[in-house]
Amino acid sequence: MKRLSSLLAIAAALALPAGAAAAPKPQPKPPSVPDATVKIDVGHLHGGRADIYDTVPVQGTLSPYVPGQKVEVTFYLDGHRLLSRDVAVQKGSNGAGSFESSVIVREDGKYAVAAKHKANAALGGDSTVRKSWKVSFPSLHPGECSKVVKGFKKALAEMGYVAGGGKCFNGRLGREVLAYRKVNDMNRSQKAGAGLVKKVFGGKGGYHVKYSNAGEHAEVPLGKQVLVLIKQGKPFAIYPVSTGKPSTPTITGHYTFYRQEPGYNSEGMYYSFYWHNGYAVHGYAEVPNYAASHGCVRTFIADQPRIYEQLHYGESIFVF
User: Angle, nearest 10°, between helix axes 171-183 and 194-201?
Assistant: First the structure.
């Protein structure tokens, strides 16, 4: 009888539904992740602009502060991503964290910055809208030495107006500014105003080569009063010149360089390179901003030794 009772108890237990088993103990609910708020502020702006080569600082906050967090700060130029940095968040005031970053304004365009915190197990995600600014440019003056002058020289050189190295506004730079002004039909001076500086940093105002398939050659557009040296279809040197006055005009056409004459001659011509009869490219004491020679292509004394080395026997010169 006892054995039968035991068997019946076992059978009854096996017949119970699974749900009737003992319920597990409830687990504690995980704590909720706090929402994040990211804010940024852009410094060193004047009327929504930063000076070229300025360092623009960005300061921000992440609330609430949670140790070990990072914020992605992204800078943009003309709508395209310029660079991104993951910046560590430091403990700040009033329960918030703080972070900072910066960018150097090296070229013209519309800059912007935004910050983003990606959600993780400790803190929610958030991002800012882009805050933007533009670039302002100064006037440059003879004798001035600065990183802006250095950058201005570099930007000119990329278009063929090679003003040498260094960071000072010297005589050679002044002559290249004059050449730039001549090419672009501006007032013929050596003044580098803010508008001109802005155009140069923007890569505007280059010389348009007329004979791009002529190999290495020289061009003298009489209307612009410049000598342009060209290689592989691009200018690599541009010089201000003075060609023949109306009573003794410079002949036009296609010629080749055939004779050199180093130093000064009896006519005051300096380092002459002849291309047709008595017509030559040469340095001279007087190089006004207009056509004033007896037919030759006059250059500044300081430029001519370099030009003399840059030209070659048999090289073409186009005068038009």
Answer: 80
Cα–Cα–Cα angle for 92, 96, 99, rounded to 5 degrees:
60
DSSP state, residue 18: G
In whole angstroms, what is the distance from residue 294 CA to residue 254 CA?
Answer: 19
User: Count of residues for the chain?
Assistant: 320
Contact 170, 181 (CB under 8 A): no
Give the amino acid at 245.
Answer: K
3-state helix, strand, coil in the chain (%, to 5): 20, 35, 45
* 143 close to 169: Cβ distance less than 8 angstroms: yes
Question: Is the previous residue joined to 249 through a cis bond, with omega within 30 degrees of 0?
Answer: no
Is 283 within 8 Å of 296 (Cβ atoms)?
no
Residue 155 DSSP one-character state: H
In tens digits, what is the pLDDT along the chain, a chain of 320 residues? 444 455 444 444 445 454 444 556 666 555 689 999 999 999 999 999 999 999 999 999 999 999 999 999 999 999 999 999 999 999 999 999 999 999 999 999 999 999 999 999 999 999 999 999 999 999 999 999 999 999 999 999 999 999 999 999 999 999 999 999 999 999 999 999 999 999 999 999 999 999 999 999 999 999 999 999 999 999 999 999 999 999 999 999 999 999 999 999 999 999 999 999 999 999 999 999 999 999 999 999 999 999 999 999 999 999 99
Report helix, strand or coil for 129.
coil
Question: What gap in Å lies between CA 86 and CA 68, rounded to an integer?
Answer: 12
Candidates 258, 252, 243; CA nearest to 295 is 243
Which are the contacts of 272, defined by CB distance < 8 A and separation ≥ 6?
260, 261, 265, 280, 281, 282, 296
